[in-house]
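Hey,
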Amino acid sequence: MVVTGGASNIGRAIVIGFAAEGARVLIADLDEARARQTAAEAGPGVEVQVTDVTSWESAQAMAAAAGSRFGGVDVLVNCAGWTVDRLFVDKPRAEWEKEIAIDMWGFINCTRAVLDGMIERSRGRIVSISSDAGRVGEWREAVYSGTKAGVIAMSKAIAREVGKHGITLNVVCPGFVPGRPETSGAESLWAGDQGTQFTPEVLEKVARSYPLRRLGTPEDVAPAVLFLASEQASYITGQTLSVNGGYSMI
């Protein structure tokens, strides 16, 4: 199996969760140093492939590497993502383009890269991390909301096309899950402007807007991904599961 963006935060928790179940995992991430640290933390059976999800060639190389090491990709988790919390009118074009490249093209490239092998073997699970922003539209996250809504819509459309091959596509939408410095690599969005603006006081205020009165953690998200990738979810496809502490109940 492959986890894109598996080096840091939510991706890291997903890698560790699958490894604990005995899965062989390929971390596909640009941050090789942080990816190798996560692999060491997860234990045997976890390997690293430096991958730029915005590049079709890099995504193809990732799929080929997983095929040669593991014999194919049975599960793909599209977790690579990026944003900076900023008003739409204040956001520079370079940030828009980076969000679209990672959050939308990353999904397209990596999903397409593994589909031929899944179709050939007549089985596969693709679970993508979207966001509540993609379901409801989030203030200060306009372009990010659009890309994550795109992941939801494309997952549903592709699920209709490939269900006959025994392949499912589902989406997990976390609420606000702040990254931790100790699990955020240099390429993590939490290593830059996004992390510095969320002081403990701001995080406490945000938590009060959630019915459960706490923010989510990567470890809250991982079990939903494991379930959707399991045989227990073999009859679930084209669905969106929110893991958000009740933030958006629609």
